[in-house]
Amino acid sequence: MRLTQYFLPTLKENPAEAQIVSHRLMLRAGMIRQSSAGIYSWLPMGFKVLQKIEQIVREEQDAAGCQEVLMPTIQPAELWRESGRYDDYGAEMLRIKDRHGRDMLYGPTNEEQITEIFKASTKSYKQLPKLLYHIQWKFRDEVRPRFGVMRGREFLMKDAYSFDLDYEGAVRAYRKFFVAYLRTFARMGLKAIPMQADSGPIGGDMSHEFQILADTGESRVFCHKDFLKFDPLQSEIDFDADLKPIVDKWTGLYAAADEKHDPAKCPVPADQLLDARGIEVGHIFYFGTKYSAPLGANVDGPDGKSTTVHMGSYGIGVSRLAGAIIEASHDAAGIIWPESVAPFQVGLINLKVGDAKTDALSGDLYAKLKQKKIDVLYDDRDERAGAKFADMDLIGLPWQIVVGPRGAASGTVEVKNRKSGEKAEMPLEQALAKVAPKAV
């Protein structure tokens, strides 16, 4: 894509309303624009990042054996009355009426909807287990929406639901999502730590939140330093195998958010304890028959008796991740995108538009990058070099290739890695090989 044709309304100054790094940089990099409080339009560059995050989430859900559905944003109130949550949910739920006066709502979550779908079509234990998910926009009318996409009112979320005959089956499903989440966040270049979360009235230890480490994180977290050595992508996963050893490895070490951390009772020696900041990006939760019982989601068991299914829910904040990745990966100049979610792989900079040799080499390189299926943003603007460098650092593409008159005369270009800052001059073909996407 040529930058002269691309819709990229960058800002030179920090917007006054942006309080945190990701909000400032997403506005400055032309990724989003506010429509109203806590509600944003996603512009081309932001939308590309959102789609790449969504695709990684989708691939890992599919690998774990989940099946994708798409449920509506607007739900009937009677479903929520059946579960008992309609009046209890509070002012965060946007309640509306249709033209016939029927109570409706803009879904903040989908437990009731998916349970009704399951109930209507599943009658026997032979049809179990089932793992269903969707990626859909949700709305929660936050009292004080802030921090951009990190705490908005409208947000894109992946929520999945498991249906099993009994507790043992629910545990197997829970472990699948636990491992899938570790892989999902690792593929985005994030270090995610699973931490035991409150299970509410259900009790037990089947609830974990996933915190990614970020210097500017919203929460203070404490964990064993050995977590930093773990690599969820180190080996292939057979999701039909026993995943307990993997889950035990990740839950066997101490990890707690600030509200659950008691320094006096912490079992980790001070020199082995990591005291850091974190951002919650995912939550998995087993809730048994909390929704299946009131909504009548039953199946005939092996003995012919009607049995209420056991359920769990598993959420990932997809739009929130776009901000969280920036919080975890940026510097004073701008965003530093991990290659797997970057809107473009390469930023190609023509330092002297109008110079015949520079234009020719830039055009040749642009064509070859596209031919190799490398996603490239070509800065072909008639703009000063300093502004081009500043914009490229701001939007944070993994690689920059700089073409200037001196290099054009000798057939060389400068290649810069945005993350490390390393620069090197090299021939055209070597530059092409250097920036080729690495397999995830």
Commentary on this structure:
The chain has 440 residues and is of the alpha+beta class. The chain contains twelve helices and 23 strands. The chain has helices at residues 21-28, 44-63, 77-83, 111-121, 167-187, 244-251, 292-295, 318-328, 356-371, 385-395, 405-410, 428-434, and strands spanning 32-36, 39-42, 67-68, 74-76, 94-97, 103-106, 130-139, 154-164, 192-196, 207-213, 219-224, 255-257, 273-288, 298-300, 306-308, 310-317, 330-331, 334-335, 346-350, 376-379, 399-403, 412-417, 423-427. The strands form six sheets. Strands 3, 7, 8, 9, 10, 11, 12, 13 and 16 form a nine-stranded mixed sheet that branches. The chain has a five-stranded mixed sheet with strand order 20-19-21-22-23, sandwiched between helices. Strand 22 and strand 23 (423-427) form a beta hairpin. Helix 2 (44-63) runs antiparallel to helix 5.
Question: What is this entry, summarized?
Answer:
This protein is an alpha+beta fold and about 450 residues long. The chain is about 30% helix and about 30% strand.
What order do the helices and strands come in, and which of them pair?
Layout: H1 21-28, E1 32-36, E2 39-42, H2 44-63, E3 67-68, E4 74-76, H3 77-83, E5 94-97, E6 103-106, H4 111-121, E7 130-139, E8 154-164, H5 167-187, E9 192-196, E10 207-213, E11 219-224, H6 244-251, E12 255-257, E13 273-288, H7 292-295, E14 298-300, E15 306-308, E16 310-317, H8 318-328, E17 330-331, E18 334-335, E19 346-350, H9 356-371, E20 376-379, H10 385-395, E21 399-403, H11 405-410, E22 412-417, E23 423-427, H12 428-434
Parallel strand pairs: 3-7, 19-20, 19-21
Antiparallel strand pairs: 1-2, 4-6, 5-6, 7-8, 8-16, 9-10, 10-13, 11-12, 11-13, 13-16, 14-15, 17-18, 21-22, 22-23
